[in-house]
Structure formats: structure tokens, C-alpha cells
């Protein structure tokens, strides 16, 4: 068994009656990694996260969590914390009392100084003495994260933790997750927000109808993706258009529109062809002012993979798609 992996799942299946929620899922989560789970509604994300938290057991396959086989008892494996479907809180208790109650349940001091530290980390110090009943969704999510922090988890599992968060709340959560990962905690979270996942995660898994469509580094999606569309702003738009039209592997799209008051060019290319274009622009003294995907690589991959009809999953098509499941 690979001790560097916080989670190793092989051929995991999980059914609810006739519904196949997970259908042969493989997943490797390295220690200290922030891993994003993405997929359309009903893809199986919550089900998978629930298995990691010990809330359910797989019907088939092998699941190892923090180096130990999981799946025989319905209990959170030691060192694992988190929540699916929102954190469980006592509504009639204040934020601080909620954490004190959790500390007491674990046989710790109710006045554990880490309670105030955790509240500060998630940005809830000012409402620490307010009852959880009146908390917004974003505040409840942050209190749930503070509760998970108190256990000092080695694997943190969060189902859509950014739900309901305002920009400040999101910043707190992002900082906490990045800090935990730096200290070696593995974080796995689901989200429908591609920008959040791209900001936070080093690796992602794209699930659709219970199957893994891609699993691996975000950079792999960008580099091995099918051609993406990029918006390009240059110091001399006419020259840029001419150079792009002549560049190998680059297609200039005619529907280019003004972008933030400037004349933008939209090109379609693979990353190596784009490298060639930027070098060609520099050779002709045309300055590149902005070059960014019109749709992010993750979003493009997500759309392409999840819109593919079931029949197109055969070996031939998946080779063409460039999105084969990572075969680590
Ligand atoms: N307890 C359950 N009983 C019956 N069916 C369930 C149960 N939990 C999940 N399912 C079904 O399993 C499938 C996967 O659901 P799951 O909640 O894991 O998806 P998800 O990717 O988290 O979706 P969403 O993005 O909507 O949260 C769905 O078809 C869902 O209806």
C-alpha cells in the first residue's frame, strides 16, 4: 500500500436501489493535496465524499483512507473530518458553545483555546456569542469548518463548502484550506464553482453519472485539452490578427468582439501553437497585453466531458477526446 496516499479507491461502486451513484470509481489523493470534485447534479460527488467520511459503505471495490481499509463500519475513520449536506450544528447554542460542546464530546476542555483560534480563522469572532439558529448558510458553513479544524484532521472532506459564502467568507475558507494543505492535511472538496476549484486545487476529478471522466493535475487539463479559445489583446490589433492568421495551428475566430473598450482577437489553439503565436508576436514587436482562455480549461473540460453522450465512451472516442482518465 502506498503510504503517501491519503485516499486510495479502486473500482468503488455504490447503488441506491436501481440508481447507480458510483460506478467503478478509482481515486488517488496524495497527502497534503487540495483535490476538487466536480460534476453535474447527481454525478455522485456527495456519495463519494460520504464514503470517505464513513457515512456509508461501498457496495463494491476497495477503499483505503489514511492507510487503513475503510468501509466495514459506519464511522468516521480516525483523522478524518468534514461534512456533507451542511454541517450538523446545535441551533440553540452560540457558535462558541457549539464548538465547546464538540470539544466536550471528544473529552476535551470546553475552554480549549483552539476554539477561539478556530473561530478567528474562519472569520466568526464577532458573532461567536450569537446563536447558530440565526446564522446564514455561509456562516453555518464556516462554523462547520471551524468544528472540523478543532479535530486536527489529516483528511478534510467538504461538500460544497463555498455555498452561500460572501467574498470575505470565501477568502477565509480559502486561506484556511491552503494553510491546512501546506501543513500536510489532505483536503477534498466538491464545488460547482470552477473558479474556486481553479484557485484552490492542484488536482481535480471530474465525475459524471457515477464514473470518473478525468482525474489529475489541473495543468494536465490545460496542456492536454482539446483546442481552447483564448482572448488576445495586443498593442497593434491589426498586426496581431495578421500574425495569428499566419501562425501554425492557430485559428482566428471572426466573431471577435470589443473587450473592455479594446479590440480583442479570439483565437483557437492548443497550448504549443499558442506558444508559437506569442513568440511570433514578440519577434514582430507586437506587445501582448492580455492572453486568457475565454472559458477556463476546467470549465471547457467539464462541459466537453459531461455533455458527451454515453455511447461516445468507447476506446476510440476517448482517445480522440484527450480526456482519458488518469491511469496512475
Ligand atoms: N440516500 C439516497 N437514496 C437514494 N438515492 C440517492 C441517495 N443519495 C444519492 N442518491 C442518488 O445517487 C445519485 C448521486 O447523487 P449524489 O448526491 O452523490 O450526486 P452529486 O454529484 O452530489 O449531486 P449534486 O451536485 O446535485 O449535489 C443521484 O442519482 C441521487 O439521486
Question: What can you see in these coordinates?
Answer:
- With 328 residues, this protein is α/β, with parallel strands linked by helices.
- It folds into two domains: 5-217, 3-Layer(aba) Sandwich (Rossmann fold), CATH 3.40.50; 225-293, Alpha-Beta Plaits (2-Layer Sandwich), CATH 3.30.70.250.
- 34% of the residues lie in helices and 27% in strands.
- The chain contains eleven helices and 16 strands.
- It has helices at residues 45-52, 95-105, 113-121, 137-150, 167-182, 194-200, 218-224, 237-246, 271-283, 297-307, 315-321; strands at residues 5-16, 19-30, 34-38, 60-65, 68-69, 80-83, 155-159, 186-190, 203-208, 211-217, 228-234, 251-253, 258-259, 262-263, 265-269, 288-293.
- A six-stranded mixed beta sheet has the order 6-7-8-3-9-10, with helices on both faces.
- Strand 9 and strand 10 form a beta hairpin.
- The protein is globular, with a radius of gyration of 23 Å.
- The two termini are 14 Å apart.
- Residues 311-328 have low confidence and may be disordered.
- Bound molecules: adenosine-5'-triphosphate (ATP).
- Adenosine-5'-triphosphate binds next to strand 2 and helix 1.
In short:
Residues 307-328 have a biased composition (Acidic residues). The chain is of the alpha/beta class and 328 residues long. The protein folds into two domains: 5-217, Rossmann fold; 225-293, Alpha-Beta Plaits (2-Layer Sandwich), CATH 3.30.70.250.
